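Q: Sequence in, structure out?
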Amino acid sequence: MVTTSLLLLADTHVPKRARELPPEVWAAVDEADVVAHAGDWVALELLNELNDRARVLHGVHGNNDGAELRARLPEVARWEIEGVRFAAIHETGAATGREQRMDALFPDVDVLVFGHSHIPWDTVTPAGLRLLNPGSPTDRRRQPACSYQRVTVADGAVRAVELVLLPPRAPAPRR
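A: Exactly. Output:
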């Protein structure tokens, strides 16, 4: 049985909301077979660091990403792992009606990774599309903790999705 581990990140906002990714996130990057980032990197340096460190990296730009990041990252990324079709996008709009909108926009996808809200999300749409938002590993906003997600793909299916909550950290100074 082939098993692939996927690390999902979004809304890192480095260095605006945090100076750097927490050590636990870097350890997860090192362990993952594939890393996907759903936008709002903020600085090109993090993209370069993740690109150098991750075995495989997929990413999209977010609404807080400037011209340099937009030049290197698409609005929508698509990839396949063991026959499971993934896509990533930063924004999906309001939670109300999200499942129906994403079914219409991504009829050829099995798992859609998104960000923007900083709110972890894991649902399945009426058409069977799995929607995953890992939250943010650096800016919890109104959530109880910063977070990311781990996904296990095996035998052509998503076998597990784990929401990882990070311990509290001292806030970074605002720039």
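The longest helix spans residues 44-53.
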